[in-house]
Amino acid sequence: MGFPTAFYLLPLFPMSVPKTVRYWLTLRAEYERRLETEPDPMPRVLPIAKIGRRWYFVDERLREYRNVLDPSDTLPLYIEEYLERTLEEHRSQK
């Protein structure tokens, strides 16, 4: 199961979308079009999701979101599981 391309924001780009993000969204849309005709087009382009005011690549292999503009900014992909695990660890320390 994959993620849609930035929740179907293509081809209409709001002015608030950074130029770099627009570029990656365009590449992702082209990749998805090629998927329909080719079994495994290369290179693979990661899906993009907007969380809050930031845009993140959805990397299922690493199980994380990576900020498009700042790759050092990451979030766990399954944030609910992460928060539950953190809460359980905190409770067990008491």
Report on the architecture of this protein:
The protein has one domain (5-93). Helices cover 36% and strands 18% of the residues. The protein is elongated and about 55 Å long. The protein has 2 helices and 4 strands; from the N terminus they run H-E-E-E-E-H. The chain is of the alpha+beta class. It has a 4-stranded antiparallel β-sheet, with helices on one face.
Terminal CA distance reads 39 Å
The total count of strands amounts to 4
**Arrangement of strands in the largest sheet:** 1-2-3-4
Share of helix, binned: 25-40%
| Helical stretch tally | 2
What's the shape? elongated
Core attributes:
single chain; 94 residues; alpha+beta; four-stranded antiparallel beta sheet; 2 helices; 4 strands
Gist of the model:
By secondary structure, the chain is of the alpha+beta class.
Topology:
Elements lengths: L18 H19 L10 E4 L2 E6 L4 E4 L6 E3 L2 H15 L1
Antiparallel strand pairs: 1-2, 2-3, 3-4
